[in-house]
Amino acid sequence: MTQEPSHPYPGRLITLDGIDGVGKSSQIEILTERLRSEGREVLCVRDPGSTDLGTKLRAMLLDSDLQMHRRTEAMLFMASRCEMIESTLRSALADGVTVISDRFLLANVVYQSVGGEVDSQTLWRLGRLACGGIQPDVTLLLDLPAEISMRRVGGEPDRMESRGVDYMAKVRQAFLDELPNAGGRTHVIDASGTIERVAEAIAAIELF
Ligand SMILES: Nc1ncnc2c1ncn2[C@@H]1O[C@H](COP(=O)(O)OP(=O)(O)OP(=O)(O)O)[C@@H](O)[C@H]1O
Ligand SMILES: Cc1cn([C@H]2C[C@H](O)[C@@H](COP(=O)(O)O)O2)c(=O)[nH]c1=O
Q1: Structural domains present in the chain
Q2: Which of 118, 17, 121, 19 is nearest to 72 (CA)?
Q3: What is the model's pTM?
Q4: Which residues are CB-contacts of 29 (< 8 A; sequence separation ≥ 6)?
């Protein structure tokens, strides 16, 4: 079955996602190096972040001392993503660049729907409006039990990590449940092996 295009541009949007500590950033580093060694122009962005506004919003959203309603939280993540798309991501795709995003709308749906007052369908609808018609071409979901991933997270827990391992276990399941709605091609990668083993599993996936 042919898939609807994720966006009207020649570039490629690849997103990596999963619960905190699953190993996304480590894999993005390896994937970026590999694609660049193959001669591809690669732009890495982080969600939330990657703009002045997004960086400020990230600091607030991860500040354990800051209280906010779940709908407020959801919309601030969407605002950061909108700014990143309209100031960086869209033009890169238009120029044919491969964009690797550390998280995207899928994280917004699962992290803000678990245990909160906002349902996933509403978050998909609002989130797609905020993304201005851009969806990932490929979503790589790194999957790992929350008990293991939370042990990998170092330092003081941020506002999301402070919600604890039970919340993170529900987020993990929500990622698996919502992945088919992410748009484009989707893959679940077992993140329980060594960094090298996980990188091999990602290298075996056809990204283009
Ligand atoms: N496959 C792996 N096996 C064991 N440790 C790993 C693996 N991948 C990453 N780590 C380690 O786990 C920690 C978190 O890794 P990383 O920052 O890549 O995860 P992350 O998903 O980006 O985390 P976060 O979402 O919290 O930023 C790091 O100390 C990293 O070295
Ligand atoms: C995009 C997005 C992220 N989150 C959560 C997920 C993590 O706990 C933090 C981001 O930190 P990381 O270093 O990327 O893990 O924010 C969220 O709750 N909603 C979102 O839309």
Answers
A1: 12-204 (3.40.50.300)
A2: 118
A3: 0.95
A4: none
Q: Is 25 annotated as a binding residue?
A: yes
The pLDDT tens digits for 138-151 are 999 999 999 999 99
HSE-up of residue 47 (Cα within 13 Å, Cβ side)? 29
Q: What is the ipTM of this complex?
A: 0.96
Tell me which residue has its CA closest to atom 18 in ligand 2. 111
170 labelled binding-site residue: no
How far apart, in whole angstroms, are the C-alpha atoms of residue 85 and residue 101? 11
d(CA 169, CA 179): 16
Residue 65 CA, chain-centre distance (Å), reads 24
The residue assigned the tokens 């703009």 is 51
Indicate if ligand 1 lies below 6 Å from the C-beta of 32.
Answer: no
Say which residue the tokens 């100031």 belong to: 87
In the chain, what are the helix, strand and coil shares in percent, each to the nearest 5? Answer: 50, 15, 35
Structure tokens of 106?
């899928």
